[in-house]
Amino acid sequence: MSGMCCFVYIAWNNYRYVLNYSFDPLLDLKYYNMAWDCQQLQLLTPALPLGIAYGVLKSLATPQEQLPRLINHTNSSKSFLQILKKNRHKEAPLTAILREKNEQAAIVLKKLGITDDYLDLYTLDACYHTKLPKASDKDRVYRALKGRALYLEEIEDSLSGQAVKVNLENILQVLYLEGKIKLLPAVAIMPDGASYCLRCGGTESIKSIVCLECGDDSCCHCEECLAMGEAKSCRPFYVAPNYDYESCKDIDIKVNFPLTLAQRDASRTLASFVASGEKNELLVWAACGAGKTEVTYAAIAHVLGKGGRVLYAVPRRQVAMQLAKRFQKVFSSIDIAVLYGGSPQKYKESSLILATTHQTLRLYHNFDLVILDEQDAYPYRCNRMLHYAVKRACKEGCHTIYLTATPRKELQEKVKSGKIDTITIPARHHGYPLPVPSIEIEKELVYKNDSVSIPQSVLQNLHLSLEGDLAQVLVFVPTIYLAEKVAEELQRAIKMPPFNNFKGDWVQFSHSKDPERDKKVDGFFAGEFPILVTTTIMERGITIPRVNVMVLFADYEQIFDTGTLVQIAGRSGRLGQYPEGKVWFIASSKTHAMSEAVSWIRNMNNEARRKGYLIIPPKGEIKNAF
Question: Do 120 and 140 have their domain in common?
Fold first, then answer.
């Protein structure tokens, strides 16, 4: 891999002119000659690293001047008309343009430290020996890039087994001149010194580097999206929108179980939302375990049936892989693409794509419907880069659906202000109310001097859960250290008869840095031990048949905010065999987050009761806050 350097130039004939940049100006001149009989091209700069050349071009040319503009035409650009207005030498329009652009280029180059002595400008005549790429090669490359945002090496990977007969960079340059794609530097450097990443939109994490590819000491890279491949100012970055539509067709949805009344109502609303086009964003606020994925099927089928394209974005690769199996059964007539780190389908083309939010960095103006699952979850939550990437993946007029049980404050504010619509799915499939957490204030729950004190009431709740409910218990704590200490203390403190003739350890712990994490979690799922002490790594995406949930030190608000507590509570009572699970929030003091989480859950239950979704009424009722 080598860094790209480009010349900024102006090309013209007696009627038109254009400003642009290229690593091979003769190739551009050949294209212009064939397209509009362009005869001459003048270099305005020496070869510059791509990111700097981009900044110079943007300072010299308006967007209109990067297209062949008619000279002295009434629809000429504002820049052109200004040049003619201040034409002190009363020159011909073309001569005035050339003079002005040369003067502007000299000023910009001086800012960059490039003097007239260093600069040696050339005027090139049309070269008839230069060959343009064949149409078949261009079509093959364009199909590989359409709807994507890729580096040169990624395009080469996507063309594996489809070798083109000429230089790939030449093909991409001509596609750029034809206006089908954009040629960008991964990091742009402007003449005033400002820099920003055109790949992820970042501005705060641009750092100067010693670049082995371009050898330029002014090269920069972006540290924000480094994990997805290094974005550098000398690295070409190609993007191509996909505005194509397939022919309309009937999409058969195959679901082997009936939707609940709550799901059917939500499904009809979503299908109407994507069909109406009145608003472009909608929030689905669903209770944990309410089956929010299923309600999207009709909306997806509607868009696919119209020949459109759908992106279903999720936070983690495991979720993408699990959903892929389910979606392939539901949409059996669609060959679905699944994108995640290390996916063998990274460049697969499909009208329905399941992807982790990080993979949306490689997508560009491609979708008519984007469904963002778990909008509030890590890593999408509070990640500017991923927000930027998901938005860029949308076509103009794209519909976006947010699915979550715990919408963030900014999304709730949009709902309150009327900017986006919302629907709720307040009930689970079994028709029982959501378990309402019990807030228990325990002053004896203390972590001090490297030891943990477990109150008797906590031990009593564990006894009742294991012996009375025959249910396992997930015990959540705020830190890795506490996960180990609490597990150690519980193991020492618990004295009780065997649970289901169990003869091993009663308690295990797990956290993000536990090397045996997967083994322990699998063992808990299999019922090998009854109590698992864990951090928030288990707050989402798990369903255990019979489980109660306990949160210790629930007043650690920096960890246990409202959304996290609601998600944790949502692990209990998910299945019909044990729908009335128990949830305890235990702390030395009550926090706003604890109270708000209880209110959210009660509001969901009250909403479900009013709409007739419950088979038994919820206990207690408070004013609905939705």
Answer: no
**Which pLDDT tens digit goes with each residue over 95-152?**
888 888 988 999 999 888 876 554 455 677 766 678 899 999 999 999 999 999 999 9
Residue type for position 616: I
Residue in 31, 13, 40 with CA at minimum distance from that of residue 178: 31
In a domain, 618, yes or no: no
pTM (2 d.p.): 0.88
**Token digits for 421?**
């619509």
- d(C-alpha 218, C-alpha 137), whole Å: 35
Name the nearest CA neighbour of 443 among 435, 453, 433: 453
Is 199 in contact with 223 (CB distance < 8 Å)? no
Residue 504, token pair as written in the block? 């091993």
246 within a domain of the structure (yes/no)? no
Residues sharing a CB contact under 8 Å with residue 296, sequence separation 6 or more, in sequence order: 267, 270, 312, 371, 401, 403
pLDDT per residue as tens digits for the range 70-95: 886 555 555 555 655 555 555 677 88
**Closest Cα to residue 189, out of 212, 167, 216, 166?**
216
Burial class (CB in 10 A: 0-12, 13-18, 19+), 163: exposed
Helix axes 297-305, 261-276, angle to 10 degrees: 30
Total domains in the chain come to: 4
Q: Give the other-Cβ count within 10 Å of 59's Cβ.
A: 16
Within 118-255, strands assigned E span 123-125, 148-151, 182-185, 187-189, 195-197, 206-208, 220-222, 231-232, 236-240
